[in-house]
Amino acid sequence: MTSPPLPRIAHIMAGAARGGAELFFERLSVAQHRQGYPVRAFIRPDAARAARLEAEHVALSQLRFHRHLTYLTRQHLKKS
After folding, report:
1. pLDDT tens string for the chain (80 positions)?
2. Which of 5, 19, 22, 72 shows its CA 20 to 30 Å from the CA of 12?
3. How many whole angstroms separate alpha carbon 58 and alpha carbon 23?
4. Pairwise CA distance, residues 36 & 32, whole Å
5. Is 19 left (phi over 0), alpha (psi -120 to 50) or beta?
6. pLDDT at 69
7. Residues near 40 by Cβ (< 8 Å), separated by ≥ 6?
8. What's the confidence (pLDDT) of residue 67?
9. Is there a contact between 65 and 14 (Cβ–Cβ < 8 Å)?
10. pLDDT on residue 68
11. Distances from the Cα of 54 to the Cα of 1, 45, 59, 71, angstroms
């Protein structure tokens, strides 16, 4: 008997460059990826955060977030 597939996980962080929630977001994304979950992180363009997540092989998309989600951002989230 085979196990059911693991749920896909999307983490979305449109926060600041630094902060407690942002650091937790990174740790959670990495931990779940290491446990074998298919994780994709969506972040604001941020070279340092992207480098840390990519170093851990977390799937990553960098999007521009505005006060209200733009049409293009919503479309990209739906495709991923």
Report:
1. 788 888 999 999 987 778 899 999 999 999 999 999 999 999 999 999 999 999 999 999 998 877 666 666 767 777 76
2. 5
3. 15
4. 7
5. left
6. 62
7. 8, 9, 10, 11, 58, 59, 60, 61, 80
8. 63
9. yes
10. 64
11. 34, 13, 7, 26
**Beta bridge partner(s), residue 10:** 40
At which residue do the structure tokens 């740790």 appear? 27
